[in-house]
Amino acid sequence: MLWIQGGAFVQLFNPNYNGSGLITSSGMEVIVVTFNYRVGPYGFLASSDLEREGNLNIGLHDQRTAMRWVVNHISQFGGDPKKITLFGTSVGGGSVLLQTLAYNGKPPPEDTGLWRAGIAAASFIPPIRRISDLDYQYRDLLTRTGCRNLSCLRRLESNSIQAANIGTPFPGQLSVPLFPYGPVIDRKLFSNTASAMLTAGEYARDKPLIIGSSHTEGTIFVPQANSTSSIFSFLQTQYPDLTKTDLKKANDLYLGVPTTIPGSTIPQSPLYYRLAKLYGDIGFSCPVLEFSTTFSNAGLAAYEFRDAISDPIEVAAGYGTPHTWEVQPVPISFRHFTSPN
Prior knowledge:
The protein has 341 residues and is α/β, with parallel strands linked by helices. It has helices at 20-25, 40-44, 48-53, 58-73, 91-101, 131-145, 150-155, 158-164, 194-199, 228-238, 244-253, 272-297, 312-316, 330-338; strands at 2-4, 33-34, 85-90, 117-123, 209-214, 302-307.
């Protein structure tokens, strides 16, 4: 089992993930492998300069490098290189799904057979944008570091890069998005957006998948909301391509969202749960549904779950079953489903 940690491609959220619970629950029948990959400007900077070099979507290529390492070396640890399962949560789960799209589902010969199956839990799937959409991050980084080109950036110490790694709004927006970095269309890993590739059938057909979402994905991310204008402002900050018509239609669809959830002891603003539901569906639940439905309709072995396991502390805090909550009970569930009883 090869763990892909989350962090929305802006940070590494589980760099010390401990897989011992999974190993114990399996009856010592699995090996858990973890690794780091580049994120933020180190892994997802995009520009025409990087495109000319072939150095786009580096963080996702790092993941594939880790897969190759496991294929080449896991037998020395008692593992089977033909039985590698990718698994992760948040953008780690999203990465599993993005890797099904890599190379239109037809990787080059040296990359075939890197993994057999995948588990994508509480998946966050950032939009696959055009290079021009994210080029502003590259230009801002050059300005903040006093550099004029890539060669200059590469000569800098990492602390200089990090000091200049400051979030900036999408062009035309006033606020910084939660997760500004992400994959781009590079005509190599990705020929188009995820939706377009799914519609065109450009995805791997040989990967059994378990795909899931938490019941209230958006609650830990969104601010308090007292008006529809605050809802529109937050959503457009994250997704600047949304038009006023898009925003109004989305809001109208969610007018019936309750102002509280059963068991919550902390009062929230009147429209907090509406915004949480909107953002949770846009960024998490609906993309998951799109992937699982596409795969299922194509006759692939894809299974979707909805995690609604309640924890009294999370419920009382008003979060419901929040994003990535499934990580906590996974070893228990694994033991249950693999038990001979």
